[in-house]
């Protein structure tokens, strides 16, 4: 038996006529959005507004007029060298961290799921990936510095002077070592879910067809994990490229990389009027990171399609 809706019923829907949502529904929807207000406020204050300030300052002259001189100055030799060193440093540490972290993540996947080893290593990687800044620089100085306990032990007990060729810890080689320290655990965190998405049935199917281990990784496992591996490597690159506090605490002489050049331009008392040049360099870093993170998002989408 069918039921008829009274024409005066407010719940009745007339074809082709849109009904307005009730005030109660609007109120409930508004309350549900209150939970994300702090997030959007945080993003606006610490990301959107600083980005707008950087973009506007990059095109502003010292007398508050429009200019392209700041962007033209990015072609100066010392600025180009700083960006090149930053890119080389970030790419090198990202590649080393991706390889070492990928091997460690694979070792964790082969361990018993939920076992003590996997839980301990995963928790340690979660902590070490966030262990950076001044604290990390101090840890390396206390360990491998001129008076660090490892340096003193090697020199006094074994007769090995790790600084016989120069104090490399406070230069680019030292930055590479320190950056690699937090790149490896970060790679484990971001690459482990992709390895967990590889189904054992795929390996069993390859074995049943007579495929070797090399053929499986070359024709099945490798192509499936390649987007995730490349995406994780790009994430590591962006992480190293934007790092500042560790380099600022470790390197006391000169400004070999782009973040330290920006600091010098913003705070230098020797050459005045470089604040907007620093914002132009910051805009260059933002563009590089934006391109890298865009490629990372595309690779993650492809990874999710196959391993999701």
Describe the structure.
With 308 residues, this protein is mainly alpha-helical. The chain is built from 13 helices and no strands. Helix 9 packs antiparallel against helix 10 and helix 12 (258-267) packs antiparallel against helix 13 (275-307). Residues 1-8 have low confidence and may be disordered.
Q: Descriptors for this entry?
A:
308 residues; mainly alpha; 70% helix; disordered N terminus
Strand element count: 0
Largest sheet descriptor: none
Low-confidence stretches: 1-8
Beta-strand residue fraction: under 5%
Q: What is the arithmetic mean of pLDDT?
A: 85
Topology:
Elements: H1 23-33, H2 37-58, H3 69-72, H4 77-110, H5 116-128, H6 133-144, H7 149-157, H8 172-196, H9 200-208, H10 213-241, H11 245-250, H12 258-267, H13 275-307
Summarize the structure.
The protein has 13 helices and no strands.
């Amino acid at each position: 038996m069918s039921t008829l809706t009274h024409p005066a019923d407010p719940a009745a829907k007339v074809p082709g006529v849109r009904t307005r949502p009730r005030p109660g529904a609007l109120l409930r929807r508004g309350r549900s959005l209150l939970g994300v207000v702090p997030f959007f406020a945080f993003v606006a204050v610490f990301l959107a507004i600083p980005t707008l300030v950087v973009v506007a300052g990059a095109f502003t002259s010292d007398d508050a007029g429009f200019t392209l001189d700041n962007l033209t100055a990015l072609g100066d030799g010392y600025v180009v060298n700083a960006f090149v060193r930053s890119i080389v440093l970030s790419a090198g540490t990202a590649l080393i961290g991706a390889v070492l972290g990928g091997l460690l993540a694979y070792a964790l996947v082969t361990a018993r799921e939920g076992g003590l080893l996997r839980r301990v290593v995963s928790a340690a990687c979660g902590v070490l990936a966030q262990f950076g800044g001044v604290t990390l620089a101090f840890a390396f100085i206390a360990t491998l510095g001129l008076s660090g306990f490892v340096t003193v032990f090697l020199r006094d007990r074994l007769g090995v002077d790790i600084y016989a060729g120069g104090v490399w810890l406070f230069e680019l080689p030292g930055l590479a070592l320190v950056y690699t320290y937090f790149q490896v655990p970060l790679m484990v965190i971001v690459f482990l879910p992709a390895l967990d998405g590889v189904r054992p049935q795929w390996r069993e199917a390859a074995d049943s067809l007579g495929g070797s281990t090399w053929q499986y990784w070359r024709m099945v496992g490798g192509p499936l994990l390649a987007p995730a591996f490349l995406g994780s490597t790009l994430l590591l690159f962006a992480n190293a490229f934007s790092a500042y506090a560790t380099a600022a605490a470790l390197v006391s002489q000169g400004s070999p990389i782009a973040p330290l050049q920006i600091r010098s331009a913003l705070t230098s008392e020797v050459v005045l009027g470089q604040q907007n040049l620093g914002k132009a360099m910051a805009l260059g870093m933002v563009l590089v990171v934006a391109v890298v993170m865009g490629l990372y998002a595309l690779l993650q989408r492809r990874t999710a399609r196959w391993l999701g």
